[in-house]
Design a protein that fits this description.
Keywords: Heme biosynthesis, Porphyrin biosynthesis, Transferase. By secondary structure, this protein is of the alpha/beta class. It contains eleven helices and 13 strands. The protein folds into three domains: 129 residues, Periplasmic binding protein-like II (D-Maltodextrin-Binding Protein, domain 2, 3-Layer(aba) Sandwich), CATH 3.40.190.10; 87 residues, 3-Layer(aba) Sandwich (D-Maltodextrin-Binding Protein, domain 2), CATH 3.40.190.10; 98 residues, 2-Layer Sandwich (Double Stranded RNA Binding Domain), CATH 3.30.160.40. A hairpin with a 4-residue loop joins strand 11 and strand 12. It is globular, with a radius of gyration of 20 Å.
Length: 329
């Protein structure tokens, strides 16, 4: 146990400079202040990363998830920061040497949602006319929707949340709707723009979606103690299993892997559903694994490994190995 008197009164928290990232960093700052009375000051550093600077092409085409983390990790290594706050879905499943995932905090709704153009009267994706254009930069989302709705078209849409909404609502815009993470809209008080959410029968969500991951220096026992206090058990169990699945499948943000997790507090059982789908939606496998969680790290990791094995028996590896860069560019 870390003695309270060695926890510093000031803890430095950092994150990206986007509006959503700042909200998330401030949330963690408030959580620390509310849970650790010995901490009286949590300055927030807002940093623009390479991923924020390149907005004219999809992330999977020029580097993936590391684009969100490198500059922040440099400051963490230099002890300019104590904790880095990430959207967990943007954190690589294997972190660079010297860093660890210190905590996962309480998860917001992990689902994806549909935001229709302002004034639209449609109530579901199946009502959209043939050829309607859906805005999404996610291969996972477009692949799953191509499977269900082959007559719809998909175009990449980048930029911060307000920029995407402006692009959608522009009368000259080609988009009938855009697909976004429910959590991002809720956290920015834009939940009223959610037309409807997508459940597993239409859309498996991304690994870690809706959760915040706190990155700290390896062997920093004081920061690990802080992280232990503000972590959330259910989110940790679910997200560690999801990340284990992605790591086992050797997937990243450029491949269509989707999940849905449920943890039963009474029975301590975790159930994780997972899917792998080809970019065009023509090949699709799904499976699920349930296991009682006694050791969080070990058992959650095993769930991901077991689910990966089940999906591979059904052909997941062949689907992933067949995906070429030109398919998703």
């Amino acid at each position: 146990m870390i003695e309270s008197h060695i926890i510093p009164s000031t803890l430095s928290v950092g994150g990206r400079s986007s509006a959503l990232a700042v909200i998330q960093s401030e949330h963690i700052g408030s959580l620390i202040l509310s849970k650790l009375p010995e901490v009286t000051n949590v300055p927030i550093t807002k940093l623009k990363t390479l991923g924020d600077n390149v907005l004219n092409k999809p992330l999977y085409s020029f580097g993936g998830k590391a684009l969100w983390t490198k500059e922040l990790e440099d400051k963490l290594a230099n002890r300019e920061l104590d904790i880095v706050v990430h959207s967990l879905k943007d954190m690589p499943t294997t972190l660079p040497n010297g860093f660890i995932l210190g905590a996962i905090t309480k998860r917001e709704d992990p689902s994806d949602c549909v935001v229709l153009k302002a004034g639209s009267e449609y109530k579901s994706l199946k009502e959209l006319p043939e050829g309607s254009i859906i805005g999404t930069s996610s291969v996972r989302r477009s692949a799953q929707l191509r499977k269900l709705y082959p007559t719809l078209q998909f175009q990449s849409v980048r930029g911060n949340l307000l920029t995407r909404l402006r692009k959608l609502d522009d009368p000259e815009s080609p988009f009938a709707c855009i697909i976004l993470a429910t959590a991002g809209l809720v956290r920015q008080n834009l939940g009223h723009r959610i037309s409807f959410t997508l459940q597993k029968d239409e859309m498996y969500h991304a690994v870690g979606q809706g959760a915040l991951g706190l990155e700290i220096r390896k062997h920093d026992h004081v920061m690990q103690h802080v992280c232990n206090i503000i972590s959330d058990h259910e989110a940790t169990v679910c997200c560690l299993a999801e990340r284990s699945l992605m790591r086992s499948l050797e997937g990243g943000c450029s491949v269509p892997i989707g999940v849905e997790s449920h943890y039963n507090h009474e029975t301590q059982e975790l159930t994780v559903h997972g899917c792998v789908i080809s970019v065009d939606g023509s090949k699709f496998v799904e499976a699920s694994v349930t296991k009682k969680i006694e050791d969080v790290q070990m058992d959650a990791n095993e769930v991901g490994i077991l689910l990966s094995a089940e999906l591979c028996k059904l052909g997941a590896k062949e689907i992933l190995e067949s995906i070429r860069f030109e398919d998703i560019h």
